[in-house]
Amino acid sequence: MASDPDSPQQPLEFVPDDEQERQREALRESADSIAHLLDSVVHIPGTSIRLGLDALLGLIPGLGDWIANFIGSTILFLAVKLDVPKIVIVRMAFNVGINTIIGAIPGLGDLFSIWFRSNLKNARLLRRYTSKRTPRATSGDWLFVIGLLTGTFAISIGTFALILWGFQALWNVELQ
Known about the structure:
Blueprint: H1 18-39, E1 42-43, E2 50-51, H2 53-57, H3 63-72, H4 74-81, H5 86-103, H6 108-116, H7 118-130, H8 139-175
Helix pairs in contact: 1-7, 3-5, 4-7, 5-6, 5-7, 5-8
């Protein structure tokens, strides 16, 4: 007997089975574990401050920040594997990027890493956009990225203008 596509035994839409959902949850838990290790594994007694390997590795000049951000970037790869919307992945990459840039400043960068917690933010974003309730990027995500791109463009133009001004100032000094 041929299978009838309208028969009640065949589902009309794709529903992930329990094994697929277990695998997805395992990936989400991996992201949570990485974030916890990098941002909040150590509790400073007598305070509410938690820090992780990100801040500790940041004490190693140059190489430490690179290693911490390389490990933190694995959360981005998990997000891609879990089909997180691309706009959210851009937002997550921004979190890693800002942590890398400011984290490179000796002393201040480590304090920033303790406060900013880019990896925990990214793990929360990953979990939020892989839950059954929120499958799409929100307008807030789009506004964030558009603002980020606008700000980056403005900084680039400002930097270019500052460089031109510097060259002009040097040129005027040499002529006098």
